[in-house]
Design a protein that fits this description.
This protein folds into four domains: about 10-125, Udp-n-acetylmuramoylalanyl-d-glutamate--2,6- Diaminopimelate Ligase, Chain: A, domain 1, CATH 3.40.1390; about 155-240, 2-Layer Sandwich (Beta-Lactamase), CATH 3.30.450.20; about 270-390, no CATH class; about 395-475. It has 16 helices and 15 strands. The chain has helices at about 10, 70-80, 95-105, 120-150, 155-165, 195-200, 240-280, 285-290, 305-315, 340-350, 365-375, 395-415, 415-425, 430-440, 440-455, 465-475, and strands spanning about 20, 35-40, 55-60, 80-85, 110, 170-175, 180-185, 205-210, 215-225, 225-235, 300-305, 320-325, 330-335, 355, 380-385. The strands form three sheets. A five-stranded mixed beta sheet has the order 1-5-4-3-2. Helix 2 links the parallel strand 3 (about 55-60) and strand 4.
Length: about 475
């Protein structure tokens, strides 16, 4: 992105002009600031007619009646970057008070020899400005051509090429504010995520310049208002028109690529849903003809997570995985070998995940039901069906409420009756052993069991009634 920016140093170095710097001990950057124009005037106070950041040429005619100190002070206040003295017109050398005043205000003073017309100096600088503008336009055209070629290799390649052309760091964040690209590798990226997330949260297309660790960054949103796709960050506080044009073309390219990528992902998920329907129906051979399938055994995972983010997360970790949507949940068919990555998936997306047992393809329908059942279990993170057995199904609020309602007559008649029945069942309904455990007589225990049977309206001598009673006691726990 480097181009020869017209400066006073560049003007003084033009050999045909034969300009000679007279000032000594100047501030370090006094010759290297961008120089907008060269103007000439012998007015005692030309400042009302001057623009910013220019060099003024004078023959010194006004200095015969105008003190040099206030004259130079006015030039300095106006932002004049240099003063050229035309030698040999009124005097051969600039007066000492002019030299001293320029030194006091840090304004470079240089000599324009008698044989160099002022118009030649102005024209030389105008040519330098035109050459720099042409170089920048040429750079922009070459950069856009290179970016178009890089885009054929993908968005990452285009962003890397943009970084090379701008000669600065380029980062990209996705729609969730996560860092997805940075070049060069040492470029700051992750620390800008909070700023990118804040920009995305506004929901409108925008750009913003921020300061981070003594470096300025310009952030640009991708996509349109209401459907932002991400943020691109450029490690630069300001971009000239040509650089901004190049960045804008990349932003448009990235937005289009992300939009197309989302549409393709959506179509892929619809296709995966049809494939999963075939697998649930036992038509694994037909499903395999539609798309490549993970090698069995497989697991089904269910999560309350964004389908697009889930598909993106598994794209590189399990490329053959099926990612679909069903019942406001994302349903994923994964190779059993990828199940170990589910904990990282749950952490990354901050969701609870239900996971089935490992099954062959003829067990997909059962596995899907297992995954939904596991996902409904209380708790965070990954809930694996294989580790749950059947007793956890009694732990829901509905089962507990039903048990409390059914056993309420026992508690009302005798608060200790429920505990008596629990001990009795824990001893396999054996009167002698249960009575000993309770520290009561066996006849007392029989009487209490008969009382419970009457209150429940159930014959606790029969196994089905005992099984129901045990189930209710488990639900209470």
């Amino acid at each position: 992105m480097d181009a020869a920016v017209p400066t006073l140093r560049a003007l003084l170095s033009r050999p045909g002009l034969k300009l000679r710097l007279l000032s000594e001990g100047l501030p370090p950057d006094s010759l290297d600031r961008p120089l907008r124009w060269v103007h000439s005037s012998d007015l005692p106070d030309p400042t009302p007619f001057l623009a910013d950041d220019l060099v003024l040429l004078t023959t010194g005619a006004q200095l015969a009646a105008t003190p040099a100190a206030p004259y130079v002070a006015r030039l300095a206040a106006r932002g004049v970057l240099g003063l050229g003295f035309g030698a040999g017109v009124h005097r051969e050398d600039p007066p000492d008070d002019l030299v001293n005043a320029c030194a006091a205000h840090g304004i470079p003073l240089f000599e324009v020899p008698y044989g160099t017309p002022f118009i030649a100096v102005a024209r030389a600088h105008a040519e330098a400005i035109a050459a720099a503008a042409y170089a920048r336009r040429t750079w922009a055209l070459e950069a856009q051509r290179a970016l178009a070629i890089a885009a054929l290799r993908g968005l990452d390649a285009a962003l890397t090429e943009l970084s090379r052309r701008l000669q600065t760091g380029v980062t990209m964040f996705d729609a969730a504010g996560a860092l997805v690209h940075t070049h060069p590798a040492s470029a700051t990226g992750g620390e800008l995520a909070a700023h990118a997330a804040a920009l995305l949260a506004r929901g409108a297309t925008a750009s913003e310049t921020i300061e981070h660790e003594d470096t300025a960054y310009t952030l640009f949103t991708l996509g349109r208002t209401g459907r932002l796709r991400g943020v691109i960050g450029i490690a630069a506080a300001a971009l000239d028109p040509e650089a901004r044009t190049v960045v804008t073309s990349v932003i448009a390219m990235a937005g289009l690529a992300l939009e197309q990528g989302e549409q393709l992902s959506r179509q892929r998920r619809l296709l995966d849903a049809e494939v999963l329907t075939l697998l649930r129906g036992g038509a694994a051979a037909a499903a395999a003809r539609v798309r490549a399938l993970p090698s069995p055994p497989v697991v089904i995972a269910v999560a309350d997570a964004p389908a697009a983010a889930s598909a993106q997360w598994w794209a590189t970790r399990a490329p053959a995985a099926l990612v679909t949507e069903s019942d406001d949940r994302v349903v994923m068919l994964l190779p059993a070998s990828a199940a170990a990555a589910l904990d990282a998936y749950a952490d990354a997306l901050a969701v609870r995940v239900g996971v089935s047992e490992r099954v062959p393809y003829d067990g997909v329908e059962r596995a899907r039901a297992q995954a939904f059942a596991a996902e409904r279990r209380p708790g965070a993170g990954v809930q694996r069906y294989a580790a749950s057995g059947i007793r956890h199904l009694l732990g829901g609020d509905d089962a507990r409420l039903a048990a409390e309602t059914r056993l309420a007559p026992l508690r009302a008649a005798d608060p200790g009756l429920v505990d008596t029945l629990r001990v009795w069942l824990e001893h396999d309904a054996r009167i002698e052993q249960a009575a000993d455990a309770l520290g009561i007589h066996r006849h007392t225990l029989r009487a209490r069991i008969a009382q419970a049977s009457s209150l429940l309206g159930a014959d606790l001598a029969a196994f089905p009634a005992r099984a129901e009673l045990w189930t209710m006691l488990q639900a209470l726990e």
